[in-house]
């Protein structure tokens, strides 16, 4: 998947900020955080389904980023892939810590937290919804999030990175440290399982 000129420009702007941060520019650090916060929060929220957990984990990501920024090699891949890998590793640790608590969660756990960032619902719905479709669109987003929470972690993260964060297979392969073929398989399985879950949830609410 080739990047557009706009994406290339945005990536170069981030790389410039990173270089300025490494040189000790505190204003550049604030700009870097501002440029990445929404995306990292969205990834954390999609994975955890909790606004509170997502905010805590987002802060943890940027704290770890601050401590490890000097280890980032600007010549070896994109900063987006690097920070996404960092966020993913923290999410895996969080999942392991809370697995016992999650084991007792009901499959139809209530939706919590606010929407932030692009959702599968956004992709399934008309990009220019009329006013009367607004409530229905919000209900779809809730159902998508509840369905995502029921996917296994490995399928959930693959679907989130591909369909919600629009990362290509190579980038996802680097983040998850698995072959591209495995990435494609997980995305395919995740999408299929997500579709079945949405059909089941749809049947329950009709």
TrEMBL record:
Domain of life: Bacteria
Coiled coil: none
Region Disordered, residue ranges: 106-131
Keyword Ubl conjugation recorded: no
Stretches assigned to the RNA polymerase sigma factor 70 region 4 type domain: 143-193
Family: Belongs to the sigma-70 factor family. ECF subfamily.
Protein's UniProt name: RNA polymerase sigma-70 factor (ECF subfamily)
Organism of this sequence: Tunturiibacter gelidiferens
